[in-house]
Amino acid sequence: MAYTVQMPALGESVTEGTITRWLKQEGDHVEVDEPLLEVSTDKVDTEIPSPQAGVLQRIVAAEDDTVEIGGDLAVIGDGDDDGGSSGGSGGGQAEAAPEPEPEPEAQQSEPEPEPAPSEPEPAPASSGGSSSGGSSGGSGGGSGTTIEMPALGESVTEGTITRWLKQVGDAVEVDEPLLEVSTDKVDTEIPSPVAGTLLEIKANEDDTVEVGGALAVVGDGSADGGSAQPEAQSGPDAQSSSDTQASSDTQAEPEPRQEQGQPEPESQPAASDGEHTAESSDGAVAASGADDYVSHETEQPAGPSGPANAGSLQSGGAPSNGTGGGETAGSPYVTPLVRKLAQERGVDLASVSGTGVGGRIRKQDVVAAADEADQQQKAAQQASAAPSANEPTAAPSDGSQGAVHGGEVQKPAASRSSNIPTPDDSGLRGTTQKLSRRRATIAKRMVESLQTSAQLTTVVEADVTRIARLRDRAKADFERREGVKLSFLPFMAIATVEALKAHPVVNAMIDTEKGEVTYHGSEHLGIAVDSPAGLIVPVIHDAGDLNLGGLARKISDVAQRTRDNKISPDELSGGTFTITNTGSRGALIDTPIINQPQVGILGTGAVVKKPVVVTDGEGGESIAIRSTVYLCLSYDHRIVDGADAARFLGSVKARLEAGAFEADLGLV
């Protein structure tokens, strides 16, 4: 039984996705919901899970292919059915063994046993897994379920396959990620609606598939001998299956071979040095046999290592070809996206306990581990700072701080050097990387925004001392009551929303072609979020209907889900005005670019204390330490004049300086 995996719907206005990486290869066994590939859209990178368990028989869309929503990605078949056609099973594998590299010849020889399937496509294209294709044709091709590109949101018509998380021959479970699809709004995973074996991939990575287009075929796992038999086989047949899979992996996934030659980090899973954690975690994954899951976009395959790695795949990879996702039962399954995040945050995946299904490590687990490590590091630095104060008296021989005594540097020198930025350990330095779909989209839209509207920025300074004091008084009770921490951003957001109601020209949209200006009746507030994948702006719809607590909860919610790549495509559209909190990284002033088709964006700087001149009620002046913040409004001068911008900022400033938020904070 064959099942076609198709590009699912990835969000509103998303019509296609680009395949960035296949996580499974043809012949691999996949479970339901097990990631098959990664897909990139204009907004997010996501994994596509397998809707059915079985064997990945054919990859239809290759990496870098753009596939429309509903387009074919792969075909999943039933390994037992393939094995059931045992008359040709052994011969099919023996035939594949002597020619693992010239796959086109294998493709020409395989259509003979595949005239029966009701789906014509799996037969001629069951190439990638020459080990599975020869035996799967008898029964797997016609009885599979075709996976189509689902609807990914309102107005989304297509998606681009960025990465296959499963390969032909892999077993998949229901709701297991099959592939990742990219749209204009989000990058998301496409889960498998059925369990079985991935028999055929109809859309390659980077293919754009329309909604409803065929992505893959998933069938009964028994339909593919390429996955079920290698585990039970021994001797030449098992070796030939391994050789064939090694050839497939060599062609489709060159990066993992680089990892195969790095066994050393595996012996150090508990390394505390952030420079080694990423290597050790990837090494552990590669050593466990999950070669299809290893993702290192920054690594370039070394030519001389190819044959050696092929040998290692032959010797150690045969069981994994048969079990595919089964190998991950011994060690937590890690998707490339999670692994990339772990690299960026310096997290050793070997030390992370997964909270996902089957112990799968999720992005939330990595973020939590990184936060915990940061807290431990800060605690260690604070602990080491205490004795450093006594060091000069304990070693006053030369009277100099930071001097070298007996080959050891004194603590004060170490504390000074702690401010020196640590070298980047992601492997990006000195490399040339392919521009991701999302980064390309951001670049395109930023330039288009500047070319579309006449943008300039006006800045005011607000005294938020009263808010700072209210926040100090109420933040503990607020967190217990609302479940989120109280930052300055909700105060600025509610002041902005109130100002938008008073100044509708800033909450508008202009259409020069029609000669129309639309003044929005609601305030849909975009919040710029610095996510691991880049700048993303989720939207809080009807923000004008929320109080301070409601805005704080919504901001925390959409920001966290955006960082975890869990935001829905519909939540990334419809904004009427945007806030970007550049102060979260210490910036004081920014000139943000407008998010089209909006006509304004507010940049909020860092809240800092400084001496300012204050005037009392009688007109007397004095110098006091106050908490201040810069508010930077970039606006479209085609419709918003400088006076309009100043009035809008004046309203925001007045609301913040008044600080009348006692009722919202429960202080009255």
TrEMBL record:
Residues 2-77, 144-219 form the Lipoyl-binding domain. Its cofactor is (R)-lipoate. Its EC number is 2.3.1.-. It catalyses: N(6)-[(R)-dihydrolipoyl]-L-lysyl-[protein] + acetyl-CoA = N(6)-[(R)-S(8)-acetyldihydrolipoyl]-L-lysyl-[protein] + CoA. InterPro entries: 2-oxoA_DH_lipoyl-BS, 2-oxoacid_DH_actylTfrase, 2-oxoacid_DH_E2_comp, 2-oxoglutarate_DH_E2, Biotin_lipoyl, CAT-like_dom_sf, E3-bd_dom_sf, PSBD. Residues 237-271, 280-292, 367-392 have a biased composition (Low complexity). GO terms for molecular function: dihydrolipoyllysine-residue acetyltransferase activity; lipoic acid binding. Residues 71-158, 215-337, 367-435 are annotated as: Disordered. Residues 84-93, 130-144 have a biased composition (Gly residues). Residues 114-123 have a biased composition (Pro residues). It is an enzyme of class 2 (transferase). GO terms for cellular component: cytoplasm. Residues 333-370 form the Peripheral subunit-binding (PSBD) domain. Keywords: Acyltransferase, Lipoyl, Repeat, Transferase. NCBIfam families: SucB_Actino. Belongs to the 2-oxoacid dehydrogenase family. This is Dihydrolipoamide acetyltransferase component of pyruvate dehydrogenase complex.
